[in-house]
Design goal:
homodimer; 4-stranded parallel β-sheet; 7 helices; binds zinc ion; about 190 residues; DNA_Rcmb_RecR (chains A, B); alpha/beta; two-stranded antiparallel ribbon
Chain lengths: ~190, ~190
């Protein structure tokens, strides 16, 4: 394989990128973005070497504990479960939540063979049983898969005697949490059930 | 910026990739494709260091002359102008063409400020005046931009007394050359006008 063919093959490993997109990306980078190629290579290498998972909340972190888990000033009685770091960032920006998080980095998807095990349910149950947690707020997306995830995790938590709530339905059904306006999310947080 | 933020910013430099796609790509790579991250980094670095342009046809090449331009057995009377290496590969696979190529690596797009100069028209005119070329076949896509490109280049070539033809209209209008079946392309080649 030539260097160009190898680049196209490597780009095809990105999610949602097929042969045609990978070719277009490779030609664009080579023709117009030589500097960006080096930056992307360096960012990939650095990310691969430096980014692991937070021991407590499972989110991507360059340190054993992420900045939020390392912040002792937060409310240890609340644990909020989100799908992605982007969803977590949106909740942080509402300024309405001061508890801790657990970041699934995925959601239940039976058709793809992604079950409770694959999204770290055992790790969540362990974290929720960690002294002090009084309520787990399930803030997964209000999509079919997000709802299924909340359902599975809620059942597992309640079976262990842990209180599990869901964001109120103020969040528009069918939407990705990340795109919901902050006021709606703040309202949904206070109305959790 | 954290390593994760830097990775997301770098991925946003890929064409067609916005904030949301870049996040999704970064999470996916970190969660499921650690090996692919290293391969992509290496492929980007190698491509940046090794891939330049062929001196004669302008396509991406790791050598001063690409394999086709270096092949003295081809028909030097024919020069075929294509938009991308992918289009060139399709023409090669028809087995119907034995001349040389000029690869624009782009197409005229007035709305984006991409004119004849930006797609290397001067270099093409110089190559076409290179002793021996009797006909330039304009095999740009049959899209609005590809037609505009063929029009601009055809006028410039004819103004210099160089015969310029266009692939026959056997190629379905509005389609990208790369997706057209080989038989249609072979037919369009023989019917060029
Ligand atoms: Zn953490
Ligand atoms: Zn060449």
């Amino acid at each position: 394989m030539t260097a160009l063919e190898q680049l196209i093959e490597a780009l095809k490993r990105l999610p949602g990128v097929g042969q045609k997109s990978a070719q277009r990306m490779a030609y664009h980078l080579l023709q117009h973005e030589r500097q960006a190629m080096g930056q992307l290579a360096a960012a990939l290498t650095a990310a691969g070497e430096q980014i692991g998972h937070c021991q407590r909340c499972h989110t991507f972190s360059e340190t054993a504990l992420c900045a939020i888990c390392a912040d002792a000033a937060r409310d240890a009685r609340l644990l909020c479960v989100v799908e992605t770091p982007a969803d977590q960032a949106v909740l942080e920006r509402t300024g309405s939540y001061r508890g801790y998080y657990f970041v699934l980095l995925g959601r239940v998807s039976p058709l793809d063979g992604v079950g409770a095990r694959e999204i770290g349910a055992a790790q969540l149950l362990q974290r929720a049983a960690d002294g002090g947690v009084e309520e787990v707020i399930l803030a997964t997306s209000f999509t079919a898969e997000g709802e299924a995830t909340a359902h599975v995790l809620g059942d597992a938590l309640r079976a262990r005697g842990i209180k599990a709530t869901r964001l109120a339905r103020g969040v528009p059904v069918g939407s990705e949490l990340e795109y919901v306006d902050l006021g709606t999310i703040a309202h949904a947080l206070s109305d959790r059930r």
